Amino acid sequence: MSLMSPTLPIGGFSYSQGIEKAVEDRWIMDMDTSYEWLSGQLCCGFVYTDLPLLRMLYDACDSDNKDEAIKWSQTLLACRETSELRQEEINRGRALTKVIEELENSITEGWAHIIRTNYLSGLALIGNYWKIPISELLLGYSWSWLENQVSAVVKIIPLGQTQGQQLLYRLVELVPDIIKQSMSLKEEEIGRSQPALAIASSLHETQYTRIFRS
What we know:
Order of helices and strands: HHHHHHHHHHH
Oligomer: single chain
Shape: globular
CATH architecture: Orthogonal Bundle
Helix content: 55-70%
CATH superfamily: Urease accessory protein UreF
Strand content: under 5%
Number of domains: 1
Radius of gyration: 17 Å
């Protein structure tokens, strides 16, 4: 639970992953369009990228296979379709590495050069060390991602706090099936392009007025 806490100093709350630009261009306007945007990411992207890649990285850490961890780390960065999304992944990886070094310094030996490059590999490494089952790690990560995204929507549109909780409640209902589907994917099925997300993220990099990081 501490790994998924919004108070963990890795900066997840400071990124909107294109939502800020999508709101400005009125792709997202209210709770219903927010649901369409985020559920689309869950069902068309998240299930084919983040979740199976976290599982692959978890297995690589479990078997102490650094070559596999590097392979899937590089695949993860390749799936981040804009410089903004890649930089977020790298920045959060570096931040999580610092947290891990403060909590469990011994486990980063031989792994620091990998986990500094992306967030999910660090999550997989400490998840293994703390003996968190992969199913729970996937669930926690999904919750954390949704919480950050809904928080961004609430701030930018803006939505009321109650509407934000209603939106989160609707989205969380999708998560068990998404996790189940991701667990059954073969290696060759991992990876998916999300054009609307990539466009929104690219445009956000040069958005004139913004409150979220690029």
